[in-house]
TrEMBL record:
Signal peptide: none annotated. It comes from Daucus carota subsp. sativus (Carrot). PANTHER family: BNACNNG10540D PROTEIN, F-BOX PROTEIN CPR30-LIKE. This is F-box domain-containing protein. SUPFAM superfamilies: F-box domain (SSF81383). It comes from the Eukaryota. It holds the Pfam family F-box. Residues 2-54 form the F-box domain.
Length: 444
């Protein structure tokens, strides 16, 4: 029997093995040496990844919003039982950084330290970045972001952030690092001065010196090559800062961040075509309260982004949905960072009422594209099918999933509402699939 197995052509062997679960495949590596190497080839990794997205078990990754290191991997079905795989942050990383940022996409998690938690005297803009496959318990350290000028002290940095995601077009994972900084020469009113990193020293005091326009430092890392590509865009930057409440995403190779101040725009960088731009969020998607603009919730659904509007009146459950669409790429190449024309546009898809079924506090999304909302007054979750306009019961009694249990919520005036007894959901939900990627990485 063993001799017959060893003589199977690779194509037939791949057709057989791709149908097996990841747990079974890890056992199969011990059958014979040729299988061990075959299962780690990019060809089979991609083949198994594509097949299991359609046919095998799918998961949901629950992130505790109060304790960033607490994760739970559960099956994406009606029972939503917890998987035997316990995605625990590697102890070396949790001890090294007080606060880690977690970005997940198609079976991998990007771990990096939160730059805002470090003092302003830190010299470099980014620190350790890791890619982690919690299913196979493998970890890979990403090479340092290259080419950051040594003079780029934090006093020159306005903001910095990372985006991470899977790009189906090239079948690869990318990390996009972006820094908004001032790269111009320091200018003074006179020539008699002492230069101290952009500050003027006079009469035993330092004063801030006006600099030239901001620039963007962008680096793109690809897992397949293990290399970074560096781009510097001078005098092209959006006003404001990155909105850290919105998790950066990568959609079809385009990294997207949400900006703050005024009417927040979306800043995007197309890694495939080296295009930088701004997307205006539809103004009708904003709620107004006391003359303030409240940004709409946004969700990543597959390789698309949706934003939706909710009425701040607790008794109203109207849901208005817009989907981000890609414009004509031939026209996009003629645009610059301040253009909004045909590069991207929003399509208003549907307006529905969830009646008394759910509270419109977005929690996450499922692998089938359904949006997840908490049920009114209860520790239940419902999922909403956008295309069919259907509300489905999803999860009951989630309050025992995390150690801190139930957190009392606040009403839209910002005060704790005991009468309404609103229950705040203490986690976010993200689609997650099994992947053999990083099988050759470092074991934990």
């Amino acid at each position: 029997m063993r001799s017959h197995i060893s003589t199977l052509p690779d194509s037939m062997l791949a057709e057989i093995l791709k149908r097996l679960s990841l747990k079974t495949l890890l056992i199969c590596r011990s059958v014979q040496k040729s299988w061990y190497h075959f299962l780690q080839t990019p060809h089979f990794t991609n083949l198994h990844f594509t097949y299991q997205q359609i046919n095998l078990n799918k998961y949901l990754l629950f992130k505790d919003i109060f304790e960033n290191h607490v994760l739970s991997l559960r099956y994406d079905d009606e029972k939503c039982k917890e998987s035997r795989v316990k995605p625990e942050i590697p102890p070396a990383l949790s001890a090294k950084h007080e606060k880690l940022k977690l970005l997940s996409s198609f079976g991998l998690i990007c771990l990096h330290c939160d730059a805002t938690s470090f003092p302003r005297c830190v010299k470099y803009a980014f620190f350790d970045i890791y890619l982690w496959n919690p299913i196979v318990r493998k970890l890979k350290r990403v090479p340092d972001v290259p080419g950051i000028p040594a003079r780029l002290f934090s006093s020159r940095i306005y903001w910095r952030n990372l985006a991470f995601g899977y790009v189906p077009e090239i079948n690869d994972y990318v990390v996009v690092a972006i820094i908004s900084f001032n790269d111009g020469d320091v200018s003074y009113d006179d020539d008699d001065h002492d230069d101290y990193d952009g500050l003027r020293y006079s009469n035993n005091t330092f004063s801030v010196v006006k600099r030239e326009a901001r620039s963007l430092f962008i680096c793109v890392y690809r897992l397949s090559t293990n290399l970074w590509k560096k781009i510097i865009r001078k005098d092209e930057y959006p006003f404001g800062e990155i909105d850290t409440s919105f998790e950066p995403v990568v959609v079809n190779g385009t990294a997207i961040w949400r900006m703050m101040y005024g009417i927040p725009d979306l800043l995007y960088y197309d890694t495939m075509e080296d295009l930088l731009g701004i997307i205006r969020v539809p103004t009708e998607a904003y709620n107004r309260r006391w003359s303030n603009l409240i940004p709409p919730p946004m969700a990543l659904l597959g390789q698309s982004i949706v934003c939706f509007n909710k009425d701040l009146d607790f008794q109203e459950s109207g849901l208005y949905i817009w989907t981000l669409k890609e414009g004509d790429k031939r026209r996009r190449k003629l645009k610059n960072v301040h253009s909004r024309g045909e590069m991207y546009f929003w399509e208003k898809k549907i307006c529905v009422g969830l009646e008394e079924s759910a509270r419109l506090d977005f929690v996450g999304s499922r692998n089938n594209g359904e949006l997840i909302f908490p049920k009114l007054y209860q520790c239940h979750l419902v999922s909403y099918n956008v295309e069919k306009g259907e509300v489905n019961d999803f999860v009951q009694f989630w309050y025992k999933w995390f150690s801190h249990g139930i957190a009392r919520g606040k009403n839209h005036y910002g005060f704790e509402d005991r009468k309404l007894d609103i229950i705040a959901v203490p986690f976010s939900v993200h689609p997650f699939v099994e992947s053999l990627v990083l099988l050759d990485g470092d074991s934990l």
